[in-house]
């Protein structure tokens, strides 16, 4: 297929790979700097921002009655998360339902339906940001700034806190205090970067205003009017990306020229959404004092990530064979893509946003070629190609524990990880956490929806792709990603919206809080174990061999669980396209 | 610890954090952005000599006639409506959206090729026949709809394919039109990131301003 390309086309293709490669190089360069900084924050070492934020934190702790020196055990930590998240959820739900009487509502929007408000609340509290509504036509500026914008920070910070508590537990330290970890994730990491990021995005062209939409006559036909939606977008946008949230201010998310106007803003958004999960792996290396292992785990994920980008980008670059035969030449698949991003930046963004559980989109995933659909679904199934804010890092190290157990069985040694014995309760918890929760909340509701395609599913694309639409929605909800094959009729006033709002709400909650509690109990147990001395018989976990075994465990477990869906969805669609539709 | 005290702490912490990140942070950012970047913060408005706003430099508009560079097809017609027939309320809020058509969906080919149907409501004009009639060699961006439905750009190839037609319709030398294309091209960031695009609204405004 590549044999018939002209020199010009080769140049375009190489330029695309160059921009992807340079972005990847930036990601690698940021990791040790940022990861080292996060470790300093949570080890209580001196950092640059101490003088600014220590007094603010002290004031915040006093106002909320938190004694920062109090340690929490696993259950206390988990309860603090559940209580605080519940309080936040009630506040958000109240804001959404009272939207009609609250200020900052220039377009005079009423409250959304109760099921939309409930789904939105659960979706944002769980760091998912699956959206069954359009921002412009459903939510006031008040709801966006003071409701959703609040969750952007707290749900991301909750994830970071869980990861830090988990790392502390694995390395034999007490877990810490949830409120301190939550607050510091905001004051030391999310907020300072968001302030700088807001200004960069505004400078790039992202609006930040309280004015309502502008209506103008169009140039070609003055009788036709254009409504240009505005809003306080920039401050929202940066934390949407940085916190791996992904819930767009506008319906069409980062494809909207006001959310993401050019190559510069797109670079900021790409780096923002991936920097924390990549860096947290390095943070682990610093806290566990084993940077080699951190780089090995980083390398393992990075290789899969790059492979996924290549597969997706090639598919989009080669384009849709059915349309190429109309065009008379192979041209990129630009359906649902913006000219300023093209095939390369769209593919990079899509793989990154599904891998990191951000869920923002700068192009429409439903319209990707089957190769892209295969990769995006695989990201949602695996959950660790960087993974969710904090939780992804914790999953990754849970997989190491599982791999320790598997290799222990193979070589007949007592499995140990970081000098602590892996015993029955650890194995039960990790397998439950990694291998049961996710498929349970994806496959069961998916099967129910597919059993009633007309009454419940609301599929918009016929054939194999329709199956992928349904499974993508539940995988996205359970993995707390939030992107979608958005053709699905999941928003009010569609008749299938009620089903989608309620059924995905269960997947959202199950995919978030069950793993968090399990992770904290696991960490608590590990932190209480007597360290066993390191001997020549100890299985080393910071080797290429062991990391490769871990990668094998991850891919085999993922394939065993989800391959049938991939085969019946994108793979079958790919064969259909190859034979001419 | 007793549960009442834990719950009280959760509520107090929620309110304190809310104050910081949902009140102080956004309104401080609004104030700074409005003061330092007033043009961008208000949506990069394009104004006519009378000072009226006529569009945004970042948002595309529909163009299908011979006198203008045609823009990409859009699933929302670039958030436009006839004010007398705006039953969907598009002009009240503004909209964005995409087709979300899968590459295997027959509706995609129908939209491109057009479709005849005895029921005129079900017939589709098709973008390919429209471009062929206008004498424009179709490019990918002119056949595929964009992600936002507001894409301000077309590709350099799509612009080049329209030069002849514009210069004939407006009686302009082709090099004059080509110069305007170059002047209204948004390049990659640092020459590396993203793809070059021709801002169709700005280009067409520049054409009108030649008079």
UniProtKB/TrEMBL annotation, chain B:
GO terms for cellular component: plasma membrane. It is found in: Cell membrane. It comes from the Bacteria. It is a single-pass membrane protein. Its main location: membrane. Keywords: ATP-binding, Cell membrane, Ion transport, Membrane, Nucleotide-binding, Potassium, Potassium transport, Transmembrane, Transmembrane helix, Transport. Part of the high-affinity ATP-driven potassium transport (or Kdp) system, which catalyzes the hydrolysis of ATP coupled with the electrogenic transport of potassium into the cytoplasm. This subunit acts as a catalytic chaperone that increases the ATP-binding affinity of the ATP-hydrolyzing subunit KdpB by the formation of a transient KdpB/KdpC/ATP ternary complex. Belongs to the KdpC family. The system is composed of three essential subunits: KdpA, KdpB and KdpC. This is Potassium-transporting ATPase KdpC subunit. It comes from Chamaesiphon polymorphus CCALA 037.
